[in-house]
Design a protein that fits this description.
By secondary structure, the chain is mainly alpha-helical. The protein has four helices and two strands; from the N terminus they run H-E-H-H-E-H. Helix 1 packs antiparallel against helix 2 and helix 2 runs antiparallel to helix 3. It has one domain. 61% of the residues lie in helices and 5% in strands. It is elongated and about 65 Å long.
Length: 120
């Protein structure tokens, strides 16, 4: 039996993490954009659950769909919208930092491989 993480390609867990963080960024952006839309239900991705599913062999879309959760607001609004702008901005910022760190790791890996190919 093969290790599912080895099926993720050259970048392993980091490639999967970058893809999931990108999808989460899109979802958080949608929440922020719909902060004033009556009835809009804020959603987020449980990143750890999505990454775990991805490492067990699920496709990125499948892992994301299984780990998507509706947010429970601390202070519900009268119009049914569950977006809390401050919480969304914090989640977006944290995700952006994780995305940047993961991208930096992948960039370093590419640079290492490039130097190895060039014989440096």
């Amino acid at each position: 039996m093969s290790d599912p993480a080895s099926n993720l390609g050259l970048f392993g867990v980091h490639g999967a993490a970058l893809e999931l963080r990108s999808q989460r960024m899109g979802l958080l952006t949608s929440n922020i954009a719909n902060a004033a839309t009556p009835g809009y239900k804020a959603r987020d991705i449980d990143f750890a659950a999505a990454l775990d599913a991805r490492l067990k062999g699920a496709g990125a879309d499948q892992a994301t769909a299984a780990a998507t959760r509706y947010r429970v607001p601390v202070m519900p609004s009268l119009d049914g919208n569950t977006v809390e702008l401050g919480a969304e901005q914090v989640a977006f910022s944290q995700n952006a930092v994780g995305y940047s760190a993961t991208l930096s790791f992948i960039t370093g890996r590419v640079n290492t491989i490039t130097r190895a190919i060039k014989g440096e």
